[in-house]
Structures are given as C-alpha cells and as structure tokens.
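User: We ran a pulldown and think these components assemble together. Before we commit to crystallization trials, I'd like a predicted model of the whole complex to look at. Sequences follow.
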Amino acid sequence: MINEFNLTCVMKNDVLVITTEGYINNAGGEKISQEFDPHFQNGVTKLLIDMEGSKVVNSIGISFLIEIIEKLNEKKGILYFSNLDPSVEKTFTIMGLFQFAEKVSSVEEIK
Amino acid sequence: MDQHIKLEVKLPKVHDIELVALEGLQLMGHHLGITEEKIGEARILVTEGIINALEHSGSDIPYVNVDFTMTKEKLIILITDFGKGFIPSDVEEPTIIGKLGSESKRGWGLKLMKSMSDGFEIDSSENGTKITITKNIA
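Assistant: Here's a predicted model for the assembly, 249 residues in total across the polymer chains.
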C-alpha cells in the first residue's frame, strides 16, 4: 500500500530542502506549504523539494506547489525539484510547472 | 486473443480511496509485466479520474465505479459517477500562467487525463458522467 505522507526539512546554505515521502494529495501538499511558509516569512527564497519518496501525486496536491511558486515569484525566488518519478515529471510538464521551477540532481547544483 | 484481466470496484466517497484502485492497478501491471514507467502514467490517469469523479459525484449516490481492462498492450479505464453531470466544453483549459495570481489553483484533472492518455472520452448527462480513458502500455 502507498504509504502515509511525511516530510523532513533542513536548511543547506540558503536553500530550504524538503524531502517528501508518500502520496502528495491535498493533505500532503498542505503540509509542504505549511512547512515552507515560516521559512519564506524569514526570507528564504530557494526551496528544493526532493521527491524520491513520492511516486504518487494528484493535481490537488500540486495546486499547493503552484501557490508556493506564486509566493516565490513575488520575491524573485525559485522552486527546485529533485528525484522526480518520470510520471510525476510528465505531470509537472503538462501543467507547465517547469516554466517557473527547475529540476536539479541535488542541492549542490543550486547556486 | 491477448490475455486480458479485469478489475471492477465500487469506491465510496472516502478520503484517499483512490489508493485502493492504484493498488489493484499496480498488481495487474506487475502480473502482465508492464513497465514501471507505464504503470506510473496509468497511476496519474486513475488518480485524476477518481478524484474528479468523487468530487462531482453528488451526495445522493456517493460512489464511483471504476473498471480496468488490461492487456500487455493497452489499459482501458472506465470511471462512472452518478452526479448531476457537466458540459465538457464549458470547462476552461487551465494554464500555469492563468493559475498564478488566480484564487483557485485547482482544475487540472481533465487536462492531465487528456494529455497523458491515448484516448479520452466523456459521456455526461444529468444522471452522471462516464469517462473512458485508453492508455497504450506496451
């Protein structure tokens, strides 16, 4: 069975790295947003979401990521993704997320 | 004739119930030796189809029927809800530009199902909506 959603969060230099595990649905997307918000209020403008542990997403969960992109755009920040499952990457491509977000292989790639 | 396997489930309007269908899809795919990449894309189609149907299923019959027919080449997904229906041409196609700055960031289900499938049909009336999705999985 697909596991419950969990996340871990760490700052690496000026990048907030959120590593997710499990289904990014409404609740999962909201948790990511809630984790991000206080850091954003404190001036963080680079967010990396490592999705190696999230092979299943839905568009309601992704709508929270669009909200994050919107906030980051206001501060000239950027959202990065790493370790995307090919089906998730295709989903993001169809939705146009990569017009405003970037794929990286690791946090070290972010300047 | 190609081997085909079927799964028919009636899903109640319960949080994350789409995961039940995904589990069946995964097992069927593995049984027929379908690649993880194709199963992954099918997962997105099934997820979007079910959450869309459950959202519009109404309160009188809060269930959706989900049927999968899978061969080594093709997956046919049939999702039926018993809500009040909708007019597909009235649904505006979302864009990321349009969603940024807009109140609602949702409404991507139909676009994802159309874009990721190899065939997509909607039959909707005041008695409910039937969505048929075809996905080549060879």
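The first strand of chain B starts at residue 5 and ends at 12. That may be worth checking against your pulldown data before setting up trials.

User: Thanks, that helps.
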